[in-house]
Specification:
Blueprint (H helix, E strand, L loop, with lengths): L14 H15 L5 H8 L3 H13 L3 E3 L6 E3 L1 H11 L4 H16 L2 E8 L2 E8 L14 E3 L4 H7 L4 H7 L16 H14 L2 E4 L6 E8 L8 E8 L8 H19 L1
Antiparallel strand pairs: 1-2, 3-4, 3-8, 4-5, 6-7, 7-8
């Protein structure tokens, strides 16, 4: 964790405020934190860590997963993050990198943002070939039916997933779409193990795609990058090469966003 830009410790530091702010920074860097981890990180008793987290939870800066009991960024913290990122031109920062990626893969690429149980495509570059996947820029689609959405869903906790999908049955976009929460949970396990998501005709017949997450420092902001192509041009033997290129581009985009 990086320290702030201050030259020195304030003359009259307030220890409890400092600890609460350090917890906020930790919530921004980790997918979730447990009470024991917070106590160890701060070097305090679990009772002290619990009081600090309870106050953050009261003010909306943290929330507790009802299943795992871990703490996650709350709506107030994500609201601040989105307000800051709202001033950043995400497509402007990502598109030059995406253009280079598209030229290298010779396929269309998209940047998606997770919005509840949907994915919103905020940037796109079409491939250079005559037969290519058309841009999905501006489209909103069910997250569980796209590689971009699935790879972001894989970062959620069990409790968050249940909140997004309270019913067992899920909407199908094509006959190949995931149709149940149980099926989705199994798919997300595979994605977590392999580090990328695959979509073969789940959102559009004749189209395949692979996606990876884009690392960002904003709590609650989830972005993912995909490469999409006609299904006959994407075989399992190409997954490693494509996802390597995606991971490199995603890292560069994350660096640009700060």
């Amino acid at each position: 964790m990086q320290k702030g830009d201050e030259a020195s410790v304030p003359q009259y530091p307030i220890e409890s405020v400092d600890k609460a702010l350090r917890l906020l920074l930790l919530l921004g860097e980790q997918p979730e934190i447990r009470l024991s981890e917070a106590a160890k990180f701060l070097g305090v008793a679990t009772s002290t860590a619990h009081r600090l987290l309870a106050m953050l939870q009261y003010r909306g800066f943290a929330r507790q997963d009802p299943v795992s009991k871990a703490y996650l960024p709350g709506p107030a913290l994500t609201g601040v993050a989105f307000a800051i990122f709202g001033r950043i031109d995400i497509p402007g920062a990502a598109t030059p990198i995406m253009r280079t990626l598209s030229e290298g893969l010779r396929e269309s690429v998209h940047l998606g943002l997770l919005d509840g149980a949907t994915v919103r495509f905020v940037a796109a570059v079409e491939g250079p070939t005559a037969v290519r996947v058309a841009s999905r820029l501006g489209r909103i689609m069910p997250a569980h039916c796209t590689s971009t959405g699935k790879v972001m869903l894989a970062e959620l906790t069990e409790g968050e997933l249940v909140q997004l999908y309270p019913e067992e049955d899920l909407q199908r976009v094509t006959p190949h779409s995931i149709g149940s929460r149980r099926e989705l949970e199994l798919e997300l396990l595979r994605i977590r193990k392999q580090g990328y998501a695959v979509n073969r005709e789940e959102s559009e017949e004749g189209v395949a795609s692979l996606a990876v997450t884009v690392p960002t420092r904003a709590p609650g902001l989830r972005l993912a990058l995909n490469a999409a192509a006609p299904v006959h041009r994407v075989s399992a033997s190409q997954y490693a090469e494509i996802t390597h290129a995606l991971h490199e581009a995603a890292r560069h985009i994350g660096d640009q966003l700060g």
